[in-house]
Design brief:
Layout lengths: L19 E5 L6 E5 L50
Antiparallel strand pairs: 1-2
The structure holds zinc ion.
Length: 85
């Protein structure tokens, strides 16, 4: 870690990139890759608990892909009915 801005707990600073980790699936033994100690097996569907991760999960409002509340998809402009042809 090169950057350090003190404690990241409850801060609004962007989260650092997750770390790639590997482990064996506890159900079928397949070597699976995960992020920050969280795994999901693509073979048998096993997932470990999120609390086993190396750090807290980002909150929903920290997800840049989350659509902002209050923003709705634009309404379609009024046009001819589909069977007007
Ligand atoms: Zn598995």
């Amino acid at each position: 870690m090169r950057r350090s801005h003190g404690t990241a707990a409850e801060s609004t600073a962007p989260l650092p990139a997750p770390e790639l980790t590997e482990a064996e699936c506890r159900r079928c033994g397949t070597l699976i890759a995960g992020l920050d100690g969280r795994y999901a097996c693509g073979v048998c569907g096993w997932v470990n608990d999120h609390s086993e991760g190396h750090r807290r999960l980002p909150r929903a409002d920290e997800d840049p892909d989350l659509p902002r509340r209050g923003r709705r998809p634009p309404k379609l402009p009024p046009g001819p009915p589909p069977d007007a042809l």
